[in-house]
C-alpha cells in the first residue's frame, strides 16, 4: 500500500496482478478497505472462471465440452455471454468472442515464426461465428460447430462495471481504477475537479501522452497497435483479429479510445472499432451517434466525436485534430 500527499490531496494506492496485467486502485478518501477487499476477491474469482489460459477455468471447460453437451455456467458468465452476443450484433460481427480458434492458429504461427496458409485461416474461420453459441434455460450454454470462446476483449470492462457496483455499495465516491490501460473513474476528486485521463502516445514510450480528457464518473478504454502485437517473419501483427477475414486487423488505427459509463460496452467497442480498421470505424462512429471516441491514426490525425472535443487537450501538436461530424472519409 502506498499513501502519498500530492498537491495537497491524500491518496492511497492499492495494487494487484490479474488477467496478465497490473491493476491499480487509487482512493482519494478514507474507509476504502472493505471496497478494495471485495473488488480484489471478485477479480480473482472471475479470473478463475473466465481465463482461457487456465485449463480448469469454467470457460476452458465450456470450450472443451460445450460442443458435445450443454454446460451449466454461473450467472455472471451466462450474462457476459449474453451481452457479448448483443455487442457482436451491434458491431456487425467485428466484436466476436468466438474467435478463439483463430487466436490459437495465430499463436501457433507466432511460435513457428511462419504465417499460416490461407486455407488454414479459412478453416479456423469456419469454426467461429456468434450464431454457434446457444444460451439455454437454467444458465446452460451449448456451443455448435466446434467453436471456442475467448473473453479477452471484454473481461476487463465487465470487471470494471462490477467494481463500480461494489464501490457504490461500499460508499466509495472518489477513486480511480487502472486495469492495464482500462480506466474507471468513480465520482469526483475532493475539490470537485474533473478527472484528467491521459491517452498514451501511440508512437512514444509508456509515459508519453498524446493528450488528455477531462471527465466525470465514467470509463475510458483503449485498444491500440502498440499493445501486445506480435511478429511473424519480421512482420508486426495486431493481437486483434478481424473476424471477417480471420487475419490480424490492419494497423491504420494507431489507437482507439472509447468513453462510456458502461465499461463492458466500451471494452467491446474499442476492440470492434480497431478490428474494423480506420475507414469502417469512422463511418460506424458517425452512423451510431452514441459512441464517444478518440481515434489516433498511423498518419498522425486524431478523429474525435463532438461529445469529447471540448473535453480533450492535445499534447503533441504534430497531430491534427478532426471532429468526426465534420468530415467525410472516402
Ligand atoms: P487489450 O486486452 O490489449 O486491452 P482488447 O480489449 O482489444 O485489448 O482485447 C484483445 C483480446 O481480445 C485479444 O487478445 C483476443 O483474446 C481477443 N480478440 C481479438 N480479436 C477480437 C475480436 N475481433 N473480437 C473479440 N475479441 C477479440
Ligand atoms: Mg476490448
TrEMBL record:
Single GO term (MF): transferase activity
Protein name per Swiss-Prot or TrEMBL: FAD:protein FMN transferase
Record Gene3D superfamilies: ApbE-like domains
Domain of life: Bacteria
Cofactor binding, note field: Magnesium. Can also use manganese.
E.C. designation(s): 2.7.1.180
Record-stated family: Belongs to the ApbE family.
Key words of the record: FAD, Flavoprotein, Lipoprotein, Magnesium, Metal-binding, Transferase
Catalytic reaction list: L-threonyl-[protein] + FAD = FMN-L-threonyl-[protein] + AMP + H(+)
Pfam families referenced in this protein's UniProt entry, alphabetically: ApbE
Top enzyme category: transferase
Needed cofactors: Mg(2+); Mn(2+)
InterPro entries in alphabetical order: ApbE, ApbE-like_sf
Positions of Mg(2+) binding: 153, 267, 271
